[in-house]
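Researcher: Can you fold this with malonyl-coenzyme A in place?
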Amino acid sequence: MEERRQGKSDKTGTEKRHFHMNEEILRAHPEFHDPQLPSLEARIDMAATKVPKLAASAAEKAIAEWGRPATDITHLIFGTYSDGRAPSADLHLASLLGLRPSVCRTIINLHGCYGGSRALQLAKEIAENNHGARVLVACSEATLISFGGPDGSNLVGHGLFGDGAGTIIVGADPMANVERPLFEIVSASQTTILNIEHAIGMEFTKGGLDFNMSIHVPALLRQNIERCLLDVFGIGPVGVHIDGSIEWNDLFWAVHPGGPPILDGIEAALKLQPEKMAASRHVLREYGNMSGATIVFVLDELRRRWRKEEGERRPEWGVMLAFGPGITIETIVLHSAAMQFA
Ligand SMILES: CC(C)(COP(=O)(O)OP(=O)(O)OC[C@H]1O[C@@H](n2cnc3c(N)ncnc32)[C@H](O)[C@@H]1OP(=O)(O)O)[C@@H](O)C(=O)NCCC(=O)NCCSC(=O)CC(=O)O
């Protein structure tokens, strides 16, 4: 990112967040402070270059680690809430990375914090149904689309959210001696907690993207999470022992850190040991809630920790959880390619 500001808040569980925002931008755009003034167009203008650029810096690192040329990417799925026009950030990212003109692009917009897991599920479907496909999943978010002053309606969002981009390359049948898989996406599913569609919402207004987060979100997730997980584990070919009494602590957990009470509630509902949420809490502390990109950071933090924990037993199976408007709960069952962390 070119410009950064860091903010600290104890209650939100964040110590550091990154924003594409500085005093110069605010001086040039006094309308960003005032929700009564039209600012959407200026925000979309800025996001149109910043969002794909941020994604490109993450993707370049992922492609370098993957070890194959960018032109071997066959599909691109771009998740963001920060974009508002077409051609969109997906096309700009493809051009920044030098992807082939025939790359099949999909943009998923306004999924909020479950955008990353939705993109991963779509990538799995594409990879398994198109021989040799390699899907670049890119999630990139810039809070400038919603940033506002203290008089705005979204103070909780301003306290929690940060900018960030995360990318993952998804494929089937890894190429021997070249590709080193980190996680296998075993199964993926989506559930909606019905009749509370206004609990988490986003809407484009003349003053930018307006977020709505009900005070009831943490409790709703806490009350519904175990039933949702039991549904998933009851139907999925997950390869773990299912006898009706799952020990959730036998799994590893990559949970979207929507805010401290969300992590606390899930931890309590599933009786998880505190270290199960350590990667999620670390990402919230260091980067804030980066919406759809956050879950990529959590997976990255898990593998970083596993690499450090020499000789210790790592769970083979795990769960990725993300939530967003609906309230939608996305669950992905993961299998760790453990040899990569040894
Ligand atoms: C906002 C918080 C940091 C505040 O934490 P605190 O430790 O201070 O304690 P608390 O929860 O008791 O709340 C303190 C005060 O904030 C108010 N408060 C809490 N949550 C609120 C909300 N969503 N909207 C408006 N006010 C809220 C309480 O009523 C209380 O007010 P008073 O002091 O007057 O009694 C936390 O509650 C939090 O992280 N909430 C989760 C936010 C959330 O829904 N995240 C999901 C993001 S959406 C996402 O991740 C997916 C997506 O975007 O798609």
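Model: Folded with malonyl-coenzyme A in place. Residues 1-5, 236-242 have pLDDT under 50 and may be disordered.
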